[in-house]
User: What shape does this take?
Amino acid sequence: MNWKEKIEKDIKENNIMIYMRGDKDAPRCGFSFRVINIFKNLQVPFETEDMDQDRALWDSLKERNDWPTSPQIFINGEFMGGCDIIMDMYKSGELQKLLGLEKESES
Assistant: This one.
């Protein structure tokens, strides 16, 4: 299986898939660290793939998403973007809503 096929398989099989520098237990850059902390704080399952393990993985992701940096986050099979986008979505509550975590409003 090539990287393009593996990426498609990963994003189909995982509601949240993060391509990053390092992994969920040992992120190797601040942006990856911030994204991991958001999802850990939300207590939702997610998977990661280390983009540094193979230059072909970086190239495949850049080509697929037209996004030159890491991390690259997919939710429900859709490419969402990177750290800044996820942080903004989290702060606004949009991420929680997308993940079905928003609390019912009390009347």
Residues 3-98 form a domain with the Glutaredoxin fold (CATH 3.40.30.10).
